């Protein structure tokens, strides 16, 4: 079943009822699997008196995503450990540690493939990575570089557009565009980096660049752009105006569920692929809220085998817009992300000074 | 450096001059009339303002400043100093904790009553309660009749600037540090004047002990009071004040404990409901994450959670001091069951500050306290008084530290 889903040319074709019953069966199986193979997970289920088998998707037990910062959770023997993924985090912050075996890694790669190919097409395109070449600089190895490596497989002759000072390497870019003139190019980068080091670079110099017909995929969150009050629509408008880019796709995803990414369609909606889903919960009661109501995003995915991450409650706020009827034609739920839960202001007798690190 | 109070000296731009001005004043006498009158005026100014009822912590503080209570402190002071020659130390610099809004008030006032001049450093982080309190202080301290207090008081706000801390440390006679361990370390690295002394209040941790039989025997009204008082102790500062109980020890047979727990948590939930207690969603998420972390540990038992902001309870089967380090506040309780009070000794950590109790005799607890095997526990108080500030705090008699004695033979 999962093999079929992950090799499909269109990962957005399951209708509501079929998808729900398939996900329910798969996710229930995963809950049992992790219950048997991950003792801390078993303890959590048992001690919180959570039923293991759910009759509805909303009854699937979930873990708060931040728990992976406090605990190493995995459902495999140490001998099968293949790699550990770390979330990004500012200095001093705890990072998530996600333990991956070969099986899960393969599933993640396949999932990302089927999703991205359905947007970019089957053949690989010449690729511009809007970032500096972190391969030269091992110290920087992070969630950002891991994401970039994942997407690199969809392009060839990769050009790392920025130098070590994050400045556009104009000569290299010119040569690249000349070499592939008339061909669509695949551009990839993190939302904030594209904004700050590509868009602002050309805007400040009041210069345009012709990238029409090319495709841009970007992700990594809106937090920094929200601080500058830049909306998704504004971001797209400027990319069109400055570079003639009309095929711009944002994606939502996290290191805790690599592979299950939610791509933005031409209508501006994030889409759930056939093997993943989202639920929205009220931030106060944690009850599931109706479509159209904003709340905390819970992500469901049938990929995580090596760690109990198939059902996670995130701290991202979002709204489900609808299901199966997006004008782009894709089936499944479609939604928007509207920022993150504001951090709790803790009151307590601590921290006269907080050290700046 | 921003000077917050008194907001008289607007023309004084230079921070050094402002500090020097306070340091150069003569000290007052202990319990001098103007100090008592000032505190009475401040207390009234807060208590008579109906809008202040929204801030029970500030109301409790204003209550503490009432004339009757100040006279109690005066009697306490006089008892300790009778037949002795006691004077103020001079200038005291208080480093207030960033987030417990009112605790700096207590150390300031005890020091003022001992006759000292006071400089209080607040962090850059502001909150509603502190802002209101500052406004109230300024309203009163700027009155002409309190010039003597205004010229001996300086409330300042600054961030991480070592220059300020160094200057203040060089010019004070006592440095009082309230704060987290890291903050205490940072400030302690800055030298004090050779003849100055230091008082340190780092992170502490508190717990409650309840007799299951006493809870079972309490009538409905007593249970409602217990619920409300425990609510105040635990949740006024989101369970993050040093004195807020985070662990609960039940003493009794397992059957009586089961019955008592049900009564107790019901009464607490009613109190929460009455007070419309609600955590920020982000705190609820942190609490959910922390309780899952607890559930994943071997030494814990059942984890019970109710509706969103209701208390989360974690049964602990084996003593483990590591569990407490993960505690996040917001109504999360680690529960232990003990057959007898005596077994509580093994759960006392050096960092423990307040033990609040229900259903035990003071004498029984005094005997128990004298056998504590380490330096843990500085206060043992009935449930409902965990947050009440006293002139003996964290094992220090503050009046003694804020005074100097002349030996005359």
UniProtKB/TrEMBL annotation, chain A:
<dbReference type="Pfam" id="PF04443">
    <property type="entry name" value="LuxE"/>
</dbReference>
<dbReference type="InterPro" id="IPR007534">
    <property type="entry name" value="LuxE"/>
</dbReference>
<keyword id="KW-0472">Membrane</keyword>
<protein>
    <recommendedName>
        <fullName>Acyl-protein synthetase LuxE domain-containing protein</fullName>
    </recommendedName>
</protein>
<feature type="transmembrane region" description="Helical">
    <location>
        <begin position="180"/>
        <end position="199"/>
    </location>
</feature>
<keyword id="KW-1133">Transmembrane helix</keyword>
<keyword id="KW-0812">Transmembrane</keyword>
<feature type="domain" description="Acyl-protein synthetase LuxE">
    <location>
        <begin position="7"/>
        <end position="353"/>
    </location>
</feature>
<dbReference type="InterPro" id="IPR042099">
    <property type="entry name" value="ANL_N_sf"/>
</dbReference>
UniProtKB/TrEMBL annotation, chain B:
<dbReference type="InterPro" id="IPR016161">
    <property type="entry name" value="Ald_DH/histidinol_DH"/>
</dbReference>
<dbReference type="Pfam" id="PF05893">
    <property type="entry name" value="LuxC"/>
</dbReference>
<keyword id="KW-0521">NADP</keyword>
<dbReference type="InterPro" id="IPR008670">
    <property type="entry name" value="CoA_reduct_LuxC"/>
</dbReference>
<protein>
    <recommendedName>
        <fullName>Long-chain-fatty-acyl-CoA reductase</fullName>
    </recommendedName>
</protein>
